[in-house]
Amino acid sequence: MVRALALLLAQLTAAAVVSETVEIGEGDRVDLGTFECRDITRSTVLQRVCYDRTRQDLVVATNGAYDRYCGVTAETVDRLLGAPSMGQFFNQNIRRETAGSRYDCHA
User: What is the pTM for the complete model shown?
Assistant: First the structure.
């Protein structure tokens, strides 16, 4: 048993780490290597939430498409993840309706 575990650990350390890249909007791509991602099962709006605390970057999957939000504080993300209705919190506090609005990455 210990031998099998040691072999498994050796294989995992030798395996190449492949970073995931997702397409955002119209052809922009984001490397999720520095993000902490969570698959969301308790929301009908959000399928996945990825957050980079250092850069305050939030990437979310809604309706099978990814979008990026910049300058989102860790507190806001924690509130999103703990909200009784994640979709309602996201729509009211994070989702932008137009370019140049809050959390726009190109502003």
Answer: 0.78
